[in-house]
Design a protein that fits this description.
This protein is an alpha/beta fold. The chain contains nine helices and seven strands. It has a seven-stranded parallel beta sheet with strand order 3-2-1-4-5-6-7, sandwiched between helices. Helix 3 links the parallel strand 2 and strand 3. Helix 4 packs parallel to helix 5. Bound molecules: NADP nicotinamide-adenine-dinucleotide phosphate (NAP).
């Protein structure tokens, strides 16, 4: 009997398609560049119909062209996800393509205020830093719920390790990230009745994204100092790539992670271990 079960297991392993995404529709907000773009490519390669998003038309067209070399099922929906109406329109456009939405990856949110010590921030900068990071992350999730709950689905949000470890100059960045981690848990509970899983992926630095160039190629001395210190401490000797982050996002988005919800996974090469 036991052996019979083992034989079945062999067949099950060979037939396992749980990491494939054929027949699924995925919207990745903030995916015309950076980590989101890598996620879009990975989900398209696994068979999903993919809708990419960003604010800029030109950047969007370039990303669309690049991804269409990979799959004929990639589309673009431009819009600024900090605006509730635009976020809703982007989600509706994605869900309207094939009459369903299965996966939402909330990836893009440009922080319009670079990291700096809290006491040096103006009140306006505090408001802007908070709004530009938090709202584009959660508004697409809110707009996607009516579609995701039709057949169940998966939400993956990107967040920051500054949410788990207090980092000088990143008080607001960390507070927003911590908000995303808490929302991951709270929404996982609220949405479980509709078979919608909610998870997050936290990062510190990625070596091949525009943010790297902005940090190390820019003229923000405080930011450069902060991230140079962090970069020197990666135990593996280097920061993760966006593709390495995308692998984890794709896993969480797929049925291979059917029993994983409410979790935040740090992809940081062991630089730090999230405490919550
Ligand atoms: N990369 C890291 O190591 C790291 C670490 C911690 C946290 N994060 C956070 O993770 C997210 C992704 O990082 P990344 O390095 O991939 O960023 P990125 O290279 O700046 O890419 C951001 C993408 O999002 C789009 N975008 C930005 N704001 C948007 C908005 N309001 N509405 C719609 N699209 C928007 C951008 O296109 P347009 O400019 O055309 O809109 C672009 O396609 C960011 O929120 C970042 O703060 C990243």
């Amino acid at each position: 009997m036991l052996w019979h079960k083992k034989e079945n297991a062999l067949q099950d392993w060979l037939a396992d398609t749980s990491s494939g995404l054929a027949g699924r529709v995925a919207l990745i907000t903030g995916s015309t560049g950076g980590v989101g773009f890598q996620v879009a490519g990975m989900l398209a390669a696994r068979g999903a119909t993919v809708v990419i998003n960003g604010r800029g038309q030109e950047r969007g067209d370039a990303a669309l062209k690049a991804l269409q070399g990979l799959s004929g099922r990639v589309h673009l929906a431009t819009g600024d996800c900090i605006d509730p109406h635009e976020a809703a329109r982007v989600v509706q456009q994605a869900a309207g393509l094939e009459g369903r939405l299965d996966i939402l990856v909330s990836a893009g949110a440009e922080g319009r205020v670079a990291p700096k010590p809290f006491a040096e921030m103006s009140a306006e900068e505090i408001v802007t830093a908070y709004q530009t990071r938090f709202l584009p992350r959660i508004l697409p999730v809110h707009a996607a719920v009516p579609f995701l709950r039709e057949q169940g689905g998966s939400v993956v949000m990107l967040t920051t390790d500054a949410a788990r470890h207090p980092t000088p100059g990143e008080s607001i960045v960390g507070a927003v990230g911590a908000g995303v981690i808490l929302m991951t848990k709270a929404l996982a509970k609220e949405f479980s009745r509709w078979r919608i899983r909610v998870n997050s992926v936290a990062m510190t630095l990625t070596s091949d994204t525009p943010s790297w160039d902005r940090i190390f190629g820019g003229d923000a001395a405080f930011q450069q100092q902060l991230f140079t210190k962090l970069n020197d401490r990666f135990p593996g000797g280097r920061a993760p790539t966006a593709q390495e982050v995308a692998h984890v996002v794709a896993f969480l988005a797929s049925d291979a992670a059917a029993q994983v919800t409410g979790q935040t996974v740090s992809v940081n090469g062991g630089l730090s271990f999230g405490g919550w």
